[in-house]
Amino acid sequence: MTTTIDPPERRETAVDKLRNGRAAVADRWHHAPRWVRWVLLAAVIVFFYALPNKEFYQYLGPIPTPGANFTQVLFTVSIYVLLAVGLNIVVGFAGLLDLGYFGFFAVGAYTVAVLTSPSSNLKTLWPWLLVVPIAIALTMVSGVMLGTPTLRLRGDYLALVTLGFAEMIRIAAVSSTFLKGQRGFSEIPHPPGKYADGRPFFGVLDARPYYWLVLTLIILVVIGVRNLTHSRVGRAWISIREDEDAAQLMGVPTFKFKLWAFASGAAIAGLAGALFAGKQNFVNSQNFELLNSIIILAAVIFGGSGNIVGAIVGGGLVAYMIERFRGIELFGIELYEYRFLFFGLVLVIMMIFRPQGLIPNRRRAAEFKDRRKEVIVGE
Amino acid sequence: MNFDGLFSNFGELTTTGLTQGAIYALVALGYTLVYGVLRLINFAHSEVFIAGAFAAIWTWNGFGLDQNSQVSGVGSILFYLLVAMIVAAIASAGTATVIERVAYRPLRKRNAPPLAFLITAIGASIAISEAFGVYTRRLPQGAPSLVSSKPLFHVAGVPIDSIQLLTIGAALVMMFALDQFINRSRTGRGIRAVAQDANTAALMGVNKDRIILMVFIAGGTMAGVAGLLYDVRIQTLTYSVGFLLGLKAFTAAVLGGIGNLRGALIGGLLLGVVENYASGLFGSQWKDFAAFAVLVVLLMFRPTGLLGESLGRARA
Lengths: 379, 316
Hints:
The complex is a heterodimer. Chain A is an all-alpha fold.
């Protein structure tokens, strides 16, 4: 990778230095021998498996959250990471703007709740593990149903329709008697599994097993998504993102692949929703505020859309930062109250100075650079 | 399905729907103007509306009026309304200007992709809304009841009160003024030119940045008046109401044909009426659901809206 020379009128600023430093790190990573990369990756994975143990995280200084149970926070963060990986397929690879991604999460969680909870009207009381594939399939179907009419439209209309969809799901959850609104569904069964002494592995108090489960699933999903993006499907997605008309002319069935991206993204959200319901034991309409959809989208863009590592880092950082504000007081004000204010400002500043995200996809970064050089009349 | 509820209250549902729709229409104008010129969903426009609504309430508070005070005399009521309207319009236009300067212009200079604009818009929207939330401690703010909600007269058995008259009347007047501004004035011609073809307009000597700023100011003024009317009508304001109202106003803009000023009026009124009928039919908790269902169905069958997209194609 060669370093590019900036136009002469730009001075080297602190931002540039940071940018070059990051480029150097990325450069080293790409040129390291394969075994070094594997060892480092394994170390990172082991670190994240060890993270929720108190014996480990108490030595990590400022990382554990003071205002909340750190293991619980880690579970929340891991769910956000899973969602970010899923949304990255839709936004990052296929370039479709989905503002209602959390709606699919809600579909997954509610499917589990309706089919397993004793407080549901259906009284099916199926075990959790059986319902998870059903939840994934149902969210996928809802993705196809929503995508079929809307994916033919222009990008910003898609954004609006998805936003409307998420809001409709939320309103249905609040208002319909079948979905029980605020009262919600209780006693949703936990995932199965027992310790040797007969205690259930997935209990109420300890969030660690759930975190490990989600972490494992994240790794599996990432492997799957990675393979997918290196296949014909992934190339089709990227060609659609770069130029849909050109892709169509080259013989890519764009509508089909857009629908695939939409559906697979939805399926991952459904999985996340099912996991959330299994952990939480309780699902009601308050879990699915519209802001969450926007937070996940922002996380993907923040991390670097089109790049799986970027999406993971973005999802993790954004979810963690929001929780990290809890319980901190600065000059006598509770910072947690200001968390979304900061979040909004960070989004604006980020888009102005680094629109490609923290860890961008190389091709996208080049595209952004290219656009900057294009001449615009009258500016 | 409660058809009796719908038919027995049909008249009242229509008038309240038209009143609410007039507010949607005014906010929708801001979306439609910005979209027509920049091809950009100004997600932060809901916060432009909220800024105006808060400014109006704080103006009344500045005169020593709170939600319990009674004002009598047509002259003083008109005075309070007029002052609050001017302040609200200035506050909204100012907020819109700040958003355009801080969030959009730097991106335009860098020729950023459309996605980046949407993200900054969302960021600005969240930041402004949260700033109001923190400042008001997330408590609802009360507005004085300046205009009486007693029925003024009856049309075919349907009571009409002065709030409804004021809201619809003010919205129509503002719409007419904006329409004249866009179609008659020199700046309006510039706006239409930039909407048609920004680069050619710039080559013909139109100052694109100034025109874009004017568009934001015009949209902001409309949103400010909408904020005032919202205060008069609902008499209480929470920092978070802007989001849903903004989304519905955008729906209204799409419904009428985004980029089309008259479409925004028709879309707004229609949306207000339709969601009121739906609430009569299914119960009021399904009101918002109906609004979005309209949007989804509309985009499936007629994505260009009822009147088509046409700020650029308007009478040149």
